[in-house]
Amino acid sequence: MTDNNKTPMAKRVIAIIGIIALLSIYVILFVMAMIGTPFDYFMGAVVATVAIPIFTWICIWAFGNITGRHTIASLDPLTSDKKHDSRGNVVPEGKIDTVVFDIGNVLTDFAYMDFIEKKVSDKELAKRIADASVHSKEWTEYDRGVLSTEEIINGFKKNDPEIADVIEKTFEDLTDIVTKRDNAIPWIKALQAAGYKVLYLSNFSWQVLEACPDAMAFIDETDGGILSYRDKVVKPDHAIYNLLAERYNLVPEKTVFIDDTKVNIDAAKELGWNGIVYKDYASTKKELEALGVVY
Fold first, then answer.
1. What is the per-residue pLDDT across 85-117, written as a single tens digit (0 to 9) for each?
2. What count of Cα atoms within 13 Å lies in the side-chain half-sphere of residue 284?
3. Domain enclosing residue 249, as ranges
4. What is the DSSP letter of 17?
5. Are residues 122 and 214 in the same domain?
6. Residue 76 CA to chain centroid, in angstroms?
7. Which of 46, 75, 180, 182 is 20 to 30 A (C-alpha) from 217?
8. DSSP string spanning 30-75?
9. Same domain, 59 and 200
């Protein structure tokens, strides 16, 4: 069996040559000091002792950045003990190579009750508004992105005509209906550093996306994904999972989906994906580790 972690012979030879060259510089410097070499020569040797390794390191670093290859000078000490492919990408050690995240209540807080209660200051009224909007089938159409804002809100109002004016006022501004989770970006980056592709798959409206840019800043850190409104399809329809798989060349058995809603995880499993119903970060991390996802 081939040891994939074994250092190639060429790299070993280069490393040995480098060590010999560096030791030679130190020996020369020591000899010069012992025989009383003129000060200018001695200082030149001192500078060379420091400058040559630094210059060599910079050259190796630049080569790695230009070619995209992992080198000894790559600025990723957290992955120095990981396997890397020929292009410098970390190779995951388990069977999973892709982690797909839901967004609401996984990478962000879908804080709709707090949002509504701040608008009306009445818990009973807030519950009625939530039942007429977020808890209704119209909210799914909000996420599907096929209706205008006016059409969606009119649908909410029809669900509880007695409070139609309050409903309309509540959804005039959606700022902070989704709020930031501080661990979202560090979680994404840790998975990527360990070699995993990180995607998102979420039922999401453009209205909420535009209203909550701070909470959604993590999107730029991922390797891509799907927000339902862009493709007019929502979970748990198999079509949205298949679309993500096709778009990003996913292998079902090598993919794990994390969502806070069981029906969405069930749909993923029906397609051969691995799935985790999100409860909290700690338990999710343990379930990922059980699948061999280590970061």
1. 545 555 566 799 999 999 999 999 999 999 999
2. 21
3. 98-108+180-290
4. H
5. no
6. 16
7. 75
8. HHHHHTT--HHHHHHHHHHHHHHHHHHHHHHHHHHHHHT---TT-S
9. no
Mean pLDDT of 37-62: 72
Same domain, 166 and 193: no
Angle at 58 between CA 57 and CA 61, to 5 degrees: 85
| Residue-averaged pLDDT of the chain | 87
Tokens of 178: 């989704």
- Residues 122, 264, single domain; the answer is no
How would residue 5 be classed by pLDDT, with cut points 50, 70 and 90? very low
As a whole number of angstroms, the distance between CA 197 and CA 68 comes to 17
| The model scores a pTM over 0.85 | no
Residues 168-185 pLDDT 10s: 999 999 999 999 999 999
Hunting for tokens 């967004």 — which residue is that? 103
Provide the Cα torsion 181, 156, 261, 98; round to 10°. Answer: -60
Nearest CA-CA partner of 45 in 22, 63, 75: 22
Same domain flag for 39 and 15: yes
